[in-house]
Amino acid sequence: MRTIDKNYKITLEIKRSQFICRIFPAKDSKEAKEIINCISEKYKDATHNCSAYIVTDDEGYDDDGEPGGTAGKPMLNILKKNELTNIVAIVTRYFGGVKLGAGGLVRAYGKSVLEAIKSSKIIEMEKYNIYEILFEYSNIKSIENEIRSSNINILNKEFKEKVNFKIALKTNDNIKYFQEKIKQKGKINYLKTEYLNKLN
């Protein structure tokens, strides 16, 4: 899965109108909609705040008052053409007094998103299952050795009453084999599945 590493912003001037495109990484539709609402509220003085998003659980677009199909849909098409997921694009337009016509709007909104993508860093994301391992301090060395030999990624280490490691395995890797190796030494709990920047 391809997405962007952080937020980006570009500004284009087309026939005296300002088109400000902001693109954001977002993990799901809830986060995507929160970003859109936040930007729309922040720049409510703009003529339009048009948006498009693609996330793992949904996709959508909004023309925000522009003629139907001239803003949000072309923006979404650019995201799809670049094979991006977990991304939100918002184009804030300040009208400059010259009407662009339907074709001109489609080109302007599409170009705004394309230029923002060109300025961004694309990263590969993969789906991982996240687990926690709880164990006694006396087992740190042997568990770390098993993790290393099993080529498992450690995301986080916590040292409290017991040791707690958060680990990530690709979804098609077999946790049972690893569980078998450490069953006398620690307890493994499944936490969630999520997309992470490609590990290893």
TrEMBL record:
GO terms for cellular component: cytoplasm. Signal peptide: none annotated. Residues 135-172 form the UPF0029 domain. It comes from the Archaea. InterPro entries: Impact, Impact_N, Impact_N_sf, Impact_YigZ-like, Ribosomal_Su5_D2-typ_SF, UPF0029_Impact_C, UPF0029_Impact_CS. One of its GO terms (biological process) is regulation of translational initiation. Residues 15-117 form the Impact N-terminal domain. Belongs to the IMPACT family. NCBIfam families: IMPACT_YIGZ. This is Uncharacterized protein. The lineage of its organism: Archaea, Methanobacteriati, Methanobacteriota, Methanomada group, Methanobacteria.
